[in-house]
Amino acid sequence: MSVIEWRKSTYSAGEGECIEISCVIRDLVLIRDSKSPYAARLHFPIPTWRAFTQALRSGALPRPGTEAPLTPVRG
Predict the structure, then answer these.
(1) Are 15 and 1 within 8 A, CB to CB?
(2) Cβ-contact 55, 61 below 8 angstroms
């Protein structure tokens, strides 16, 4: 079994609020929280991850921290 190599997001401010990614398992991108490296991890097919990051770059999706506040739903 190979060791997974992780790298921090380029948007990490160095304050512990960052994600790490790895692309060493088949055709998947793995995502984890750097504060909890052994907690649950997300995984996405590489084409899905590329479409997501391209949508962020193009402005089709809001950048983290710029989204509108959530409105509580009562019901």
Answers:
(1) no
(2) yes
Looking at the whole model, is its pTM more than 0.90?
A: no
| 64 Cβ contact partners less than 8 Å away, ≥ 6 residues apart | 11
Task: Output the CA angle 52-55-56, nearest 5 degrees.
Answer: 90
Please write down the HEC assignment for all residues of 2-52: CCCCCEECCCCCCCCCCEEEECCCCCEEEEEECCCCCCCCEEEEHHHHHHH
**Structural contact between residues 6 and 19, judged by C-beta atoms closer than 8 angstroms:** no
pLDDT digits (tens, 9 = 90+) for 18-59: 888 888 777 899 999 888 888 888 999 999 999 988 988 888
